[in-house]
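B., you asked whether I could sanity-check this one before it goes into the benchmark set. Here's the sequence:
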Amino acid sequence: MESLWEAYADESQSASKSPSPKVNFYEDVFTEGDSDLLSKEQTLRDEKFDEALLKFYMTNKVKQLKRKLTATRTEKFKKQKSENNEQVVFTRYSGKYFSSVAKSLTPHQVSVIHKYGAGSFLKFEKTDVPLRFVKWIAGKFDTRTSHIQLTSNFIPVTKETIHNILVLPIGGLEVVPDREAGRSFILSHFNVPSIPQVSYFGSKLKTEEVLSDEDIFICFMTVMFQNFLCPNSSLQPSSEYLHLFRDPANFMKYDLSKFVYEWLVMSTNKFHKATKLSSRRQITLGGNHYSLAVAYLDSVDFGLKALPDIVPRVLVWKGSRIREYADLDKRSGNSFGKRPLKHVAYACKVQRKKLKCSQHKGRRKSFKVQNPEEFSSTNCLLCSYQS
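And here's what the prediction gave me:
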């Protein structure tokens, strides 16, 4: 056993005395040529990565542009479709034309209008009434209850409203529409084969043609009814009221306030029905736009910009005032109703007093005045207004 350990010790000593094997350590195992090759491979990999990244970017960018173009085309198509489906609203109402005819009357023609008691109609001045504003009000006008219905308030519109605005006769004889009588009267009186356009009657007043007093009255009233009081969808005046002009002396005895009011309600009701029909591309908004706009604006609280409470309102709302105050009440686009309504209705602010004179004793007129005590029993507001 000891001999074995001795032999092992001898081998260990001999191994320790033998020289150690030489190990070479290299700082860089790659030669210069191998380093260049690695650099080229790395550069090639970077170039391929850049190409792949660029390709990925371009692919996604193209897809993004395609989606954007598709969305734009879709939006444009929907807009065109919406525009094609949008109903175009037009009207024959033209206070501008009526006022131009009234201003062109000669002194003799003016005296004829006064002679038949219709001098108050000459008080109307050229007034700008925006169609989009009246369209918005008409959309809020409930013809069943005769109210301009807003979110939580309403504005009543009655024949008294029309009377306070335009000082048309109120009460008196009922106007019974008669198409056949009106048509026959115009055809025979002017010796024409069909009812002419309204410009025919306006031209007669503007030219130097010698007209009888009756012709002057008929032409003036036809222009006023067709372009201002009761416009329809045609260039020709409606034959429903033309028979009223046969007797100029008794014309002011009719309840014109009621007739104009009922025409406004009827026209607005037709407008509502037409807007519900998708097949209708053009719809007409008839009726007296001026009265509808004034009825609404008179109930809106404009604060320090409030207009004086003068009756008839036609003396206040003239020129560009309706457009200016409509802009004050504008929300955005074609939407209005920005300002609050008055707490007290305009009709409750003024007092009513009946005034008469010997000339108008047979037909008493009811007027709303701001200060009734200023008028004595001998003063007639109808006479003072028509003078």
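One thing to flag: The first helix runs from residue 2 to 17. Otherwise nothing jumped out at me.
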